[in-house]
């Protein structure tokens, strides 16, 4: 395949993804060839070839002197995972042994020349790095005092707290100044929240599959993870949670209600309300992981659990890692009735989060371009996730199922048969492609036949080649259809 042919293939796949996900519904007239060429930065010739290909595949139909129209199609996208495996023992809770394995996966995934489909990072060109640099420069110039602040005196910089309060107010949460603690990313926020509400050997309920570093954190704090089955559609199963809490006292329930990692599920409002009611009924706190909450694909922002009437028992954790830059390490906990204890833990365990960066982020937020940036980012991530989904369905073994993320930028893929994706990881790296093996998203080694793909980078010809190589690797496994 030469470079030009790959270009029009890639464009066709991107457009195809938009059609399959109803962004361009049946009967819709596509933008003109000139417009598509401007929007996608491809030559007129490449756009024409991509449209020809889509016509051959039955996605579009040319109408003389008018343009290209989306064809009605009877075959749905299909192959979507509807339910995570539910063969999960609710009792006894299990301990975790994944740390070294994960460190190895992360290290190999970020090696130079390896397609960045492993670690969930956005491409740096999608982030407002130049604007952030200017904010740092302004703060360095105007606030020399920040360089000499005592770290254990005041963990929070008031400018940033004020910006956060304003943002949360727009989302229906009126948070007092002293309810917020600024942290080193969402990682520290989750750590402080867990250490506040749980003691050694306590059980905490987690989504399954769930974020692997959270599982590691639970283990290293001497806690025990209780895996609650979660679906790519609605997130944590509340029926399973209720069965679990009737059997076992849980110190907390940790959920990522908007754009969960790894499945990109969004918990519907009715489920959010039910979860809050369960927390009230069985008297447990909720740790709400909001790290992807700005990256929802629906028109409206899902309502945070913290905004519910029982919000006082919610410790809401978040950060700017997925939307501004993972290197900032700026996050927060809004601790509700636990806020004073969270603050005290922060003081004891780390003093404060870098005040220069806190004020630089506040400066960036004051400038008022964050919401605009988020709107563009959400659209971009959605396009990337859709394009990646199409590539996976095209190149992976028949019977492969994918999540249909409703936010964020990761895709969960379930392979047919008894493929062990952790065992194949080094062979993928040798082919210069990374992924996160499914088993690390479980405390008990489930999801061996799954992988998570990072869709934080624009889908290019190189991505198509990388996914084709992965597909080839999985297809050549003798057991893939067992
Ligand atoms: C679900 C989830 N929670 C928390 C974090 C940690 O975020 P941060 O980089 O801000 O520490 C991540 C990072 O990938 C994540 O995916």
From TrEMBL:
Pfam families the UniProt entry points to: Aminotran_1_2, GntR
Domain HTH gntR-type per the UniProt entry, residue ranges: 5-73
Keywords tagged on the record: Aminotransferase, DNA-binding, Pyridoxal phosphate, Transcription, Transcription regulation, Transferase
An example molecular function term from Gene Ontology annotations: DNA-binding transcription factor activity
SMART domains the UniProt entry points to: HTH_GNTR (SM00345)
PROSITE patterns noted in UniProt: HTH_GNTR (PS50949)
Stored InterPro entries: Aminotransferase_I/II_large, HTH_trans_reg/aminotransferase, PyrdxlP-dep_Trfase, PyrdxlP-dep_Trfase_major, PyrdxlP-dep_Trfase_small, Tscrpt_reg_HTH_GntR, WH-like_DNA-bd_sf, WH_DNA-bd_sf
Superkingdom as given in the UniProt entry: Bacteria
UniProt signal peptide: none
Family: In the C-terminal section; belongs to the class-I pyridoxal-phosphate-dependent aminotransferase family.
Name of the protein this chain belongs to: PLP-dependent aminotransferase family protein
């Amino acid at each position: 395949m030469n470079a030009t042919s790959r270009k029009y293939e890639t464009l066709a796949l991107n457009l195809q993804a938009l059609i399959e996900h109803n962004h361009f519904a049946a009967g819709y007239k596509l933008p003109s060839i000139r417009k598509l060429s401007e929007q996608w930065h491809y030559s007129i010739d490449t756009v024409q070839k991509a449209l020809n290909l889509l016509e051959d595949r039955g996605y579009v139909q040319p109408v003389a002197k008018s343009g290209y129209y989306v064809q009605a199609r009877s075959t749905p996208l299909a192959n979507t995972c509807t339910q995570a495996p539910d063969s999960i023992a609710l009792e006894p809770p299990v301990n975790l042994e994944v740390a070294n394995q994960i460190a190895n996966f992360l290290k190999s995934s970020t090696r130079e020349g390896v397609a960045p489909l492993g670690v969930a990072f956005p491409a740096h060109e999608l982030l407002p790095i130049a604007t952030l640099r200017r904010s740092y420069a302004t703060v360095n110039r105007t606030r020399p005092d920040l360089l000499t602040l005592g770290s254990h005196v005041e963990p929070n910089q008031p400018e940033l707290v004020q910006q956060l309060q304003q943002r949360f107010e727009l989302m229906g949460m009126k948070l007092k100044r002293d309810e917020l603690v600024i942290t080193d990313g969402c990682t520290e926020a989750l750590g402080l929240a867990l250490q506040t509400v749980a003691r050694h050997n306590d059980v905490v309920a987690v989504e399954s599959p769930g974020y692997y570093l959270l599982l590691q954190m639970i283990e290293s704090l001497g806690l025990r993870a209780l895996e609650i089955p979660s679906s790519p559609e609605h997130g944590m199963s509340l029926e399973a949670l209720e069965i679990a809490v009737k059997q076992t006292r849980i110190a907390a329930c940790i959920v990522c209600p908007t754009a969960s990692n790894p499945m990109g599920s969004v918990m519907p409002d009715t489920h959010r309300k039910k979860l809050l009611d369960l927390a009230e009924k069985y008297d447990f706190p909720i740790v709400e992981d909001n790290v992807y909450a700005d990256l929802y694909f629906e028109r409206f922002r899902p309502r945070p659990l913290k905004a519910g009437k029982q919000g006082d028992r919610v410790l809401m954790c978040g950060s700017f890692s997925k939307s501004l830059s993972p290197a900032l390490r700026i996050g927060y906990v809004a601790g509700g009735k636990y806020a004073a204890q969270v603050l005290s833990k922060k003081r004891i365990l780390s003093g404060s989060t870098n005040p220069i960066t806190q004020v630089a982020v506040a400066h960036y937020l004051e400038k008022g371009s964050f919401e605009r940036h988020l709107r563009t980012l959400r659209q971009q991530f959605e396009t990337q996730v859709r394009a990646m989904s199409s590539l996976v369905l095209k190149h992976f073994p028949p019977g492969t199922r994918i999540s249909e993320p409703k936010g964020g930028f990761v895709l969960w893929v379930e392979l047919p048969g008894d493929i062990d994706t952790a065992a194949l990881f080094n062979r993928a790296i040798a082919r210069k492609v990374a992924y996160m093996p499914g088993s690390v998203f479980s405390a008990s080694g489930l999801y061996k036949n799954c992988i998570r793909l990072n869709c934080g980078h624009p889908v290019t010809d190189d991505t198509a080649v990388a996914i084709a190589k992965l597909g080839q690797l999985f297809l050549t496994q003798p057991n893939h259809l067992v």
